[in-house]
Write a structure and sequence with these properties.
The protein is an alpha+beta fold. The chain is about 35% helix and about 25% strand. It is built from 3 helices and 5 strands. A 5-stranded antiparallel beta sheet has the order 1-2-3-5-4, with helices on one face. Strand 4 and strand 5 form a beta hairpin. Helix 2 packs antiparallel against helix 3. It is globular, with a radius of gyration of 15 Å.
Length: about 140
């Protein structure tokens, strides 16, 4: 019997300190799934998606928890989904400020780094979920 976890979930307040915990949650899933080759990309994209959700909540005064859910859609492809209840949708945009400006690159990194990604608003409750997949088909 295979007792390795194939999904993880984490619910946390919209505070920047939780981005590290979200990354470590994904790292643990990848480690226990013996998929270290996906770690760098998955951690970067998780960090960006979680930071975007936290920033959206902060900017819009949303205090409801952010939810991370990750699991294998098949043995080779990991899907990570980040849900928040802040109004509005994230978009890919080109940063317009100086090169050291921290804003505007999150969704751009996700769009370039993920094998698939999107934003959905269907499902129960308010808000939206940003998701991405890493790990090409074998």
């Amino acid at each position: 019997m295979d007792d390795r976890p194939n999904t993880v979930s984490l619910v946390f307040p919209p505070h920047p300190a939780w981005a590290r915990t979200a990354r470590e949650t994904i790292r643990t899933l990848l480690t226990t799934s013996y998929r270290p080759e996906l770690t760098d990309t998955a951690l970067l994209l998780t960090s960006e998606a979680v930071t975007n959700a936290i920033n959206a909540c902060t900017d819009k005064g949303c205090t409801t928890p952010v939810t991370l859910h990750a699991g294998w859609t098949d043995p080779h492809r990991l899907r990570v989904l980040i849900h928040d209840e802040a109004p509005g949708l994230p978009s890919v945009r080109t940063p317009t400020a100086a090169l050291d400006d921290e804003g505007g690159r999150g969704m751009q990194l996700i769009s370039y780094g993920a094998d698939a990604w999107g934003v959905c608003t269907h499902g129960p409750g308010r808000g939206k979920a940003t998701w991405f997949e890493v790990g090409r088909d074998a």
